[in-house]
């Protein structure tokens, strides 16, 4: 447990990471970023955790990097914050991440949501990259991940104007997986995560790796990697268990082996 980031084990196999700094709209200062990275490291090392849910509070996901902490910083100061190391821990997290977004997901908050593999948004959620309005640009993947998620023209409009978009618009452009009633976002994210946690973790990890690495590869290279990984699944106990359970008309019990 950190000062601003709380972790808990929910249903079997699901780890929940929540950040709670309401007085600053969950702004991601150095402490929050460090605690977030530590929470991901903890769940990454815990074999009992197969899927992670990432959530802010009921009112806000995160309002981005802490503007007050960096207002007077020089470029050299910013180069030495260690912020990139924290983002890298989340970027390299091999298990599936489901984000539950309520309220604002702005700047680094929107970028944090985009580190997830599935995004469930409450209908009142708003997503935006407002960095340009405070004289900077996104610094945690906004220009890259947003464009890959929604395409050039929607991304350019959000990035160049700084205007947020509603959950409905975000859904229409492919920035979220599912929109639900505000009070259902966390419950739905946990439900999706627990479903994933019951499935074979080696397959889940490989699907995540292949999708993320495939985005930056020529199609032929991605297909070769997929085929090689597909074949390797037949060396796992979970493949035997999954297929035998299907034939025997029973529920599979996946062990992650
Ligand atoms: N950093 C530091 N403090 C913040 C903050 C942030 N990103 N966002 C909000 N706060 C603080 C406010 O300064 C305010 O503090 P005080 O009570 O001391 O005045 C408190 O949180 C409440 O904020 P508001 O009164 O503004 O709350 P609101 O509910 O009216 O508005 C909001 C919420 C729309 C999120 C608004 O606060 C806002 O626009 N925040 C800034 C969003 C932003 O520009 N984010 C980008 C940051 S840069 C970045 O993220 C870089 C990157 O890529 C990593």
List the defining traits of the structure above.
Lyase 2-enoyl-coa Hydratase, Chain  A, domain 2, 6-stranded mixed sheet, 2-enoyl-CoA Hydratase, Chain A, domain 1, 2 domains, binds acetoacetyl-coenzyme A, 10 strands, 257 residues, 12 helices, 46% helix, alpha/beta
Topology:
Elements: E1 5-9, E2 14-19, H1 30-45, E3 51-55, E4 60-62, H2 67-70, H3 75-79, H4 83-91, E5 97-101, E6 104-106, H5 108-114, E7 118-122, E8 126-128, H6 142-150, H7 152-161, E9 165-166, H8 167-172, E10 178-180, H9 185-197, H10 201-214, H11 219-232, H12 237-247
Parallel strand pairs: 2-3, 3-5, 4-6, 5-7, 6-8, 7-10
Antiparallel strand pairs: 1-2, 8-9
The structure holds acetoacetyl-coenzyme A (CAA).
Residues 24-25, 27, 63-68, 104, 106-108, 111, 130-131, 134, 138-140, 142 line the site of acetoacetyl-coenzyme A (CAA).
Mean pLDDT: 96
Order of strands, widest sheet: 1-2-3-5-7-10
User: What hetero molecules are in the model?
Assistant: acetoacetyl-coenzyme A
* Rg over CA atoms: 19 Å
Run of helices and strands: EEHEEHHHEEHEEHHEHEHHHH
What kind of sheet is the major sheet? 6 strands, mixed
- Termini Cα gap: 30 Å
Strand content: 15-25%
Give the helix proportion (percent range).
40-55%
Number of domains: 2
CATH class (first level) name of the largest domain: Alpha Beta
CATH topology of the largest domain: 2-enoyl-CoA Hydratase, Chain A, domain 1
Spans where pLDDT lies below 50 across 5 or more residues: none
Shape: globular
Supply the helix-strand structural class: alpha/beta
Superfamily at the CATH H level of the largest domain? 2-enoyl-CoA Hydratase, Chain A, domain 1
What's the number of helices? 12
- How many beta-strand segments? 10
Examine the secondary-structure arrangement and name the CATH architecture of the largest domain: Alpha-Beta Complex
């Amino acid at each position: 447990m950190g000062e601003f980031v709380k972790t808990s084990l929910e249903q079997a196999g699901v780890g929940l990471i929540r950040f709670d700094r309401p007085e600053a709209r969950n702004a991601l200062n150095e402490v929050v970023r460090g605690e977030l990275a530590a929470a991901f490291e903890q769940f990454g090392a815990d074999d009992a955790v197969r899927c992670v849910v990432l959530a802010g509070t009921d009112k806000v996901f995160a309002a981005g990097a802490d503007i007050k902490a960096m207002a007077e910083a020089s470029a050299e100061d910013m180069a030495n914050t260690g912020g990139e190391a924290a983002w890298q821990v989340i970027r390299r997290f091999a298990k599936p991440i489901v984000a539950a977004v309520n309220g604002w997901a702005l700047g680094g908050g929107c970028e944090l949501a985009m580190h997830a593999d599935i995004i469930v948004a409450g209908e009142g959620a708003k997503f935006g990259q407002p960095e340009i309005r405070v004289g900077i640009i996104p610094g945690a993947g906004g220009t890259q991940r947003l464009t890959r998620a929604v395409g050039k023209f929607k991304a350019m409009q959000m990035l160049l104007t700084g205007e947020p978009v509603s959950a409905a618009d975000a859904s229409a452009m492919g920035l979220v997986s599912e929109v639900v009633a505000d009070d259902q976002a966390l419950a739905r994210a946990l439900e999706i995560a627990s479903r994933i946690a019951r499935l074979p973790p080696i397959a889940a990890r490989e699907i995540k790796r292949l999708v993320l690495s495939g985005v930056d590869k020529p199609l032929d290279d991605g297909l070769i990697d997929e085929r090689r990984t597909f074949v390797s699944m037949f060396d796992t106990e979970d493949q035997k268990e999954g297929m035998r359970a299907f034939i025997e008309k029973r529920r599979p019990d996946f062990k992650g082996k």
